[in-house]
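Project standup — Tuesday

K.O.: blocked on the structure for the chain from last sprint. Re-posting the sequence here as requested.
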Amino acid sequence: MTRVLSSAQDTANTSATDLKDKTEVAANIADRLELMIAALQDLPETEVEADAQFLAEAAAANPDANIFVRNASRKAPQ
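H.V.: unblocked you, prediction finished:
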């Protein structure tokens, strides 16, 4: 019984350590994503609009192309 309990405690400790490590990695990634989003907000609107226009024209020219376009009028292929 003592051996089983000891094994369970070791497993729990290992799991807790792994979870702590993964939580720290996730927090670091969240910080980096936050910085990326903040940097995107600093882009001038004209560049963003030009990129959107380019993507819309590319999608219209080739509707089967595998590109992501945020356009409510475009429907997903079926």
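K.O.: great, moving the ticket to review. Helices lie at 2-40, 45-61. Residues 34 and 62 are 34 Å apart (CA to CA).
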